[in-house]
Amino acid sequence: MTRSSITIVGASLAGLRAAESLRRQEFDGPITLIGDEPHAPYDRPPLSKQFLAGDWDEEKLALTKPEKLADHDLTFRLGTRATAFDLATRRLSLDDGDSLEVDGLLIATGARCRTLPGTEDMEGVFVLRGLDDSLAIRAALDAGPSRVVVVGAGFIGAEVAATARERGLDVTLVEALPQPLGRVLGDEMGAVCADVHREHGVDLRVGVGVDAIEGDDRVERVRLSDGSVIDADAVVVGIGVIPNTEWLEGSGLEIDNGIVCDATCLAAPGVTAAGDVARWPNHRFDEFMRVEHWDNAVEQGGHAAKRLLQSDDEAEPFMPVPWFWSDQYDRKIQLAGRIRPDDDMQIVTGSVEERRFAALYGRAGKFVGVLGFNRPRHVMQYKTLIQQGVSYDEALAAEI
Ligand SMILES: Cc1cc2nc3c(=O)[nH]c(=O)nc-3n(C[C@H](O)[C@H](O)[C@H](O)COP(=O)(O)OP(=O)(O)OC[C@H]3O[C@@H](n4cnc5c(N)ncnc54)[C@H](O)[C@@H]3O)c2cc1C
Q1: Which of 97, 121, 146, 170 has its CA 20 to 30 A from that of 272?
Q2: pTM
Q3: Does residue 318 lie in a domain region?
Q4: Residue 1 counted as domain residue
Q5: Ligand 1 geometric centre to CA of 114 (Å)
Q6: Which residues in the chain land under pLDDT 50?
Q7: What is the CATH number of the domain that holds 336?
């Protein structure tokens, strides 16, 4: 398939990796990346970890070196937002008034944070998605607040709580579900994370919602649904994300909790999507998924780029084993695969008590997931077994 040019909307992880992959595949036509942030592509995971802790500076976040970018001959239009696309005419409109006719289009616009209504402009209340968010939270933590409240104990909330606590701050972590990370890890393993936070001195409140965030000029307190009130001078809200698809309404693309793609990451002829914004059927797990992990943005960016250069006959399904890590205190938590609360689970090495173990998950005889606490080698080796499609029994018997 020959293409005269490729336009990538979203100049971050998936978008940049897609562009690099196009050059690796010897696509030598023009590649334009359009990104609404003013910054050159940077990495997000450190924003809740090393960067927030004050251990890394901005330079260390760069996703690529300037020399490498020059080699790839990419055109960046940063600080520019795509406002509309029309599939029929292939016209892409930008917020600077320009419009482009695109040939190949790869969409990697990621996701943005959910907010608590009414708190968006309240001083001292933050969300964390981008560099500017992390800088603002870091400045608030530098000011030595007497009490930090983190709302939502998903991965971002739990990491922010850990980082703030390691900076010696007084931290309350509030979660509506019975356990932190319960949605991803289930209650049993969520309880292990709860213990880790409590052992580090976090005031963890679970099974309780937030009724109001209050204050006059700035945040002063958080009122919980059990009637308790927590004084706060910095609040970080981590209650999930929404895929950035509004600009595609009326485009002719199907939007449903992300950009709906086929198994090969194709959303329409000559249009692919990748990263946090893409939803596609992953045949390995018989599941339609949208994955919000770093590794997926990298892999799917590459796959969606390649797809733009392939005919329908050449195209291959994208069937990764989803994988992520999270760093909290001195624990590296990693999960590969797709697990559900009713899966069978067995610990194969280490123990929950030492907070260092690998647990395997099986469903209907199939090996579907591995969770590791400070067991990176095990997670990667078991991930390979999931990829190979071994049975649960075979995984349990494997010598790793
Ligand atoms: C604080 C934080 C910590 C994380 N830690 C981990 C971790 O430890 N492990 C892990 O596996 N994953 C982690 N992640 C998730 C990982 O960073 C994301 O999955 C990854 O960034 C997704 O890449 P993406 O390119 O799809 O989307 P994004 O990184 O969100 O990039 C999308 C880009 O498109 C831009 N954009 C949006 N709309 C438009 C538009 N209309 N026009 C132009 N540009 C637009 C956005 O501003 C953004 O720059 C973390 C995420 C965050 C925020």
Answers
A1: 97
A2: 0.97
A3: no
A4: no
A5: 14
A6: none
A7: 3.30.390.30
47 in ligand 1 pocket by Cβ < 6 Å? yes
Q: Which of 52, 294, 332, 371 gets mutated to test ligand 1 (max ligand atoms within 8 A of its CB)?
A: 294
Domain of 368 in residue numbering reads as 330-397
pLDDT in tens, 138-152: 999 999 888 999 999
Last residue of a domain, one of 217, 237, 257: 237
pLDDT, position 67:
86
Strand order, beta sheet including 266-268: 75-78, 31-35, 6-9, 104-107, 271-273, 266-268
For ligand 1, whether the C-beta of 113 sits within 6 Å is no
Domains in the chain, number: 3
- Domain-located, residue 313: no
